[in-house]
Automatic annotation (TrEMBL):
It comes from the Bacteria. Keywords: Cell membrane, Membrane, Transmembrane, Transmembrane helix, Transport. It comes from Streptomyces argenteolus. This is Carbohydrate ABC transporter permease. Belongs to the binding-protein-dependent transport system permease family. It is a multi-pass membrane protein. Residues 82-293 form the ABC transmembrane type-1 domain.
């Protein structure tokens, strides 16, 4: 009868020790759960309650049943704002995702200038959204901004903010310019987790960089893309300060998206009950889109190979 060698015994003891390591106790999550409940669940519950009330912000809220919701589904302005929000979200995703993906994969490499260029590229993420909106508002001023000089050279109307299409594209560009570095960072982290052996095997088989990108990098970043897309979509649906500072919902109502409509309804006309209904509808739309993406992408069934370690 053979006995296990000391090396095999140590190896078995190590595997048993690792296998006995369980999840952290639930108590570790209590601070996070309390923080989320106080600053997310409770305000959301209050907003849902106010959506069934009539309230001017001064007197006590008065329950009115489904009046605000009936008005919501009949309001053409709400329908236009919802359409503009979805359009802005789509433009932002189409604009930001390919650029952030390519930059993230590049930043995960070992180029000599990578660290310096990555640091420069991430600067907009550190700036205030208000400051960025004011900066671009000054640059795009048709009378005094830089756009007045360089616009004709580039074939761009200096009054780009005066057209409905131009104003919406500018809002999408400014938001992308600020938050694209964040998504680049997500893709950079995902790209660095791809095993190098996959690329080595592909190189031996004669696959070039383009084939490696489409057959290795993209499939391996599928869940990373889902994470980035969910964050991007929720962020785009909640654009507010950029619209407030740059366009104020104009020209006309061509950039009046749902968050700005909610602000204008609640804090300019003091119809806070209806504004709460708009806010609740926005939460429902954003949550539904996120859940659909997670469901269709298979992200919810993803499991870590290091879970419990």
């Amino acid at each position: 009868m053979s006995h296990p060698t000391p090396v095999a015994k140590r190896h078995g003891d190590r595997k048993a020790a690792v296998g006995n390591v369980g999840r952290p106790p639930v108590a570790w999550a209590v601070p996070g759960i309390l923080f989320f409940a106080v600053f997310a669940i409770v305000p959301l519950a209050i907003a849902v309650y106010l959506s069934f009330c009539e309230w001017d912000g001064l007197d006590s809220p008065t329950l009115t049943g489904l009046d605000n919701w009936t008005r919501l589904f009949k309001d053409s302005e709400f329908g236009q704002a919802a359409w503009l929000s979805l359009l802005l979200t789509t433009i932002s995703w189409v604009f930001q995702t390919p650029v952030a993906l390519l930059l993230g994969v590049w930043a995960a490499g070992r180029q000599r200038s990578r660290a310096f260029l990555s640091a420069v590229f991430f600067i907009p993420l550190l700036l205030s959204t208000t400051a960025i909106a004011m900066l671009f508002h000054a640059l795009l001023d048709p009378n005094f901004g830089v756009i007045q000089t360089i616009g004709p050279w580039l074939g761009i109307d200096p009054n780009v903010m005066g057209s409905s299409t131009g104003a919406l594209l500018v809002v999408a560009f400014v938001g992308g310019w600020q938050f694209m570095p964040f998504h680049t960072l997500i893709y950079q982290g995902g790209a660095r987790q791809i095993p190098e052996v996959l690329y080595q095997a592909a190189s031996i088989d004669g696959a070039g960089m383009v084939r490696q990108f489409f057959h290795i990098t993209l499939p391996q970043l599928r869940h990373t893309m889902t994470t980035s897309s969910v964050l991007m979509i929720v962020g785009s649906l909640t654009y507010f300060d950029t619209v407030l500072i740059m366009t104020k919902g104009g020209p006309g109502t061509d950039t009046t998206i749902l968050p700005y409509l909610m602000y204008r309804t609640g804090f300019q006309t003091y119809d806070l009950g209806y504004a709460a209904a708009i806010a609740t509808a926005l939460v429902v739309v954003a949550t539904s889109i996120s859940l659909i993406m997670v469901r269709l992408s298979g992200f919810g069934s993803m499991r870590s190979t290091r879970e419990g370690m």
